[in-house]
Amino acid sequence: MKTKYHAFHTKINKAAGPALRVLSYNIQLGIAYTRYHHYLTRSWRHVLPFQGRQTNLDSIARFVDGFDIVALQEADAGSLRSDYINQVEYLARHAGFANWYAQTNRDLGNIAKHSLGLLSRPRPREVVGYRLPGRFGGRGVMLARYARKEHSLLVGVVHLSLGQKARRQQLAYLAHQVAQHKHIILMGDFNCRVDSDEFQTLLSSTHLCSPERELHTFPSWLPKRGLDHILVTPELTVERAHVYDLAYSDHLPIALDIRLPAALVLDWPEASLQSAALHT
Fold it and tell me: Would the pTM of this model clear 0.85, i.e. be above it?
């Protein structure tokens, strides 16, 4: 599917700088759905712990090990339903990520801690979290800035609302947040397709680019809709865009292989765990 505004084409640019593999994945708390009726028969797993969750998280950890920066949506930061395990930290430790950050957007205490997550091999200079506008709240964006010297890369992790009106407000807010940055990767579960009015408004009001065709990520067992997206600015060369066929959630993970500008050098430290819990 071609978009009305700003579509990137995958290409190989040997003259560009270092490579970066990024992934966005709505992990649905480590709950695997493979049929529509699971929304009914497995709905209790969103509230209570179950035996197979850690096995599923281990499978996700093995998969994300092959990437440099991973954006997570629908993670739990440690409550009854996750056996009081911070799932972002768990995946970081089991996949060998030196840096991890969890942002809880809806804290229901022991019942649930709805969170975004960021796993990163390069070390960000700063990571901040913001609440997104919306009638019911509980949505946020995590912004990580990677910088050395005068050049920087902004990476955003989002999970937008189900309602179109709220998404319009949230995307307008995001457009304002990224307006002053040259090199941007914005990824997450946008809960809308590339050809939706609100998504096209985001593209037309920023210099962000989307794939020239829609990448279907939902539902995982019969993907017909592209709800998960990774957007980049034109200075970042996309060499490959791909959706992985995995049955670990009700969404499929989406990934880009990116070639950074030669002048944009990230901080790749020795493996020492750095973490933070953000609350909006």
Answer: yes
